[in-house]
Every structure is written in structure tokens, then in C-alpha cells.
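Lab notebook, entry 443. We have the chain sequence and a SMILES string for pyridoxal-5'-phosphate, and the next step in the workflow is to get a structural model of the bound complex before anyone spends time on docking refinements. Request logged below.

Task: model protein plus pyridoxal-5'-phosphate, output C-alpha cells.
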Amino acid sequence: MKFLRKADIDIYNLIKKEEKRQAETLMMIPSENIASKAVEEAVGSSFGNKYSEGYAGRRYYQGNTVADEVELLVIDRAKKLFKVAEVNVQPHSGSPANFAVYTALLKPGETLMGLALSHGGHLTHGADMNASSIYFHSVPFTLDNEGRIDFQELERLAKKEKPKIIIAGFTAYPRIVDWKKFAEIADMVGAYLMTDISHISGLVAAGVYPSPVPYAHVVTTTTHKTLRGPRGAMIMVTEKGLKKDPDLYKKINRAIIPGIQGGPHLNSIAGIGVALKEDSKKSFVTYANQVVKNAKALAAELNKYNFKLISGGTDSHLILIDLRNKNLLGKTAAEGLEKVGIILNMNGIPFDPNPPLYPSGIRLGTPGTTSRGMKEKEMKLIARVMNQTINEVAKTKERMKIDMEQEKKRSVRQQILAETKSLGKLQKEILTLCKKFPIKKVY
Ligand SMILES: Cc1ncc(COP(=O)(O)O)c(C=O)c1O
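Result returned:
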């Protein structure tokens, strides 16, 4: 980065600082991952200078012959990897990808059904305050008491509400989803089945998680999570989708541009292409398998330490923990773990008695640590440090006689962490682990 260093020392220093932060902590937010140097180079390339509004062969601006080549190549790679009929690689990110599908298939006010945000769905699946529920009629479905999708309730609601789209997609659901069951219900009421596989698309590509492609009409995904590419998204149309609606791909394309976007980010599209090539390698299958093995090992270990895992464990890359038996809010736990170098996020749990800003749970996952080469042995260490951290912080809270209302105050949480003296020692353990598994970005 010699040019950047010379031109803008402030931004250069911030990038170096962030690199150091990532190197010296564990990336355990399940939606994050470490893209390769090759992906970074493509994203930083001259494609970022080019405007390419439109699609290959039908652009609004001149000078797009190379743009056409790169976009078509990336589409072709995505079609082969996911075995789908058509792909749009232009969405700037996952949220606009989902919104484009809704605008393609629904008129304002028509009904969509997605998993409630508080039960593991994404904001864009019809949550209050999101455009998906402001402009469309959103009917959320939920999980059952075991933390599994309540298909009976889903079927009942679908028959009653007659949605035009059913969204099978998740941001905090650790289990394998029964795509077939979703499809049966969607077909029963004549709805489009849209699956949002943002979290699991890398696992699906590698064949370690069932593909929704035979069952769904439309599949959306971000490209920066388990898929390990740059930030971006894709909308895939399946054979089943084209059978239901031969104009489906056209509708989706029109919904992206001129519907909700202007020019595509060609540099990101190039980066997606690089990632898709990497994802087609045997080594990526090994990686994806290890992501799941690591998550299962971590879940088993956390169970031993009496953590209460939603649904009892995981089949994928992510784990959701109910912390109520540990006497700590998710936010305090996440802040304590950040102090020792374990970076994860607070999260609501199904039927959470606490409000979204102070939820009862935390969510974590293994894509990032597995990209550094960590395996089951390291997961054991991480579970132990997590357990010690949370126990120590909870003990301090008890000693200071702090109740939950007080714990909601930032200054009080800071005081609790400052008083928990053992965090420094635990942080050193995580730092040693990080140094043993440096970030290489070469896969
Ligand atoms: C399931 C799911 N869909 C969509 C999105 C939105 O993606 P983005 O943040 O790129 O807009 C996310 C992001 O976490 C997600 O988990």
C-alpha cells in the first residue's frame, strides 16, 4: 500500500490499525469471514472506475465490452456452482437484493411471510421499520419451543394470509432447514418460495448443507459470509422458478435496474468471480466441512460448560446461546468477550423476555477462525476462555450487587469489566492463539 501511505497517512494508519485488530482477535461473528488477497486485489482494481448501467450487450454507456465479459464470466461461474438457471450478480448487498425480489414480484401492500426477526429472521424478511414491512404487508412466522421452525403454524398462517412470497431465510438459525417442507407450503398456497441463503451459501456451494435450489423459485445470497468473497450479493433464479414464471429473471433484472439501483459495482462483481473460482476448489469443500466440524465441536464444549444452546446445538456454522442461566445480558457478555479478544454479537433468542437492545443471548460462528486454520482443538480452548470470561464477569456483577436495570447502563457495564481483573490473563491466551494462526488470506 505504498501509494496510499504516501497520499493519505490517516486512512493508511486506520487500515493498518484494523488489520492489527483483526489479526489479534478472533472473528466469531457468523456473518463475517476473511476474503483472500486475490479477492481484495480484484475489488481494488480499475473496474471500480467504470459505469455499466444495464446488462451485458444492453448498457446505457459506452466502453463496456470488458465489463460485459467480466459480468458474464461471473454469472457463468455462479450458475455452475449453485446449479441454477439464471443469476443477477449486480445487487450492491444482501438488503437491496432481497428488496429487489419483493419489488419484482409484489405490488405495494401485497403480502410476504418471513421468519420473525426476534426468532432468527433478517430485518429484510419483513421486520417492523424495514422497507419490507413498510411497503408490503408482512406476516411473520416463528419457531416452536424447541427452537425449530413451526411448520404447522406456518402452514396455518399461509393458508389464511395467502402470501405472494414465502421467505425461507435466516440470520440466527443454527439448524438444517427442511426446504422441501417450505416448498410444499408455498406450492399449496401458490406463493413464490424465496430462500435467502446469505449465511450458508458457502456451505451450500461446498455441499455440506442441503441446497434449496430444487425447491425454491428464487435464491438470494450475500457473497461475503461463508462464501468468503467481497461484499455484494446475487439473486439466483431456478429452473422451478422459470417454470412457474417464464418472465421471472426479466422481472428480477428490471427490479435491480432501473428499479432500485443504478450502476453495478463492477469491481465487487470481479471480486465475486474470484471468490466463486476459489469456492469451486476441493480445498474449499475441506474448509466448509471444517467450519461445520468446528461449530459442532464448539457447541459440544459449550454444552459441557452448561451454556444453553438454542435448539441444543448446531448443524451449520453458527451457534445461538441463551445466557439467562449465566445471569448476564447478551450485551455485557459480548463486551466482556471483546475485552479478551473474542468478537461476537449480542442477539435476541426466541421468545426473548428482554428488549432487542438488551437481548438475552449471544450469537457466534466459525467461518473466520476456520479461515485461519483453526480446528476442533482450538474450539475447545475458545469455549473454555468464553466460559471463564462469562463466569468471571457474572461474579463481579454479583459482587457489585448490580441488577439487570443497572446493567443496561453503559457506564455500569464498563465498571463491571474494569473490576474483573482476570480478563487481562484470558486476553493473553487469545492473543497467543491468534499469533499461532496468523491471517494469511491465501487459500
Ligand atoms: C440472511 C441475511 N439476509 C440478508 C442480509 C443483508 O445483507 P447486507 O448486510 O449485505 O445488506 C443479511 C446480513 O447479515 C443476512 O444475514
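Notes for the group: The radius of gyration is 22 Å. Worth checking against the assay data. Residues 31, 93-95, 98, 122, 124, 169-171, 196, 198-199, 222 surround pyridoxal-5'-phosphate (CB under 6 Å).
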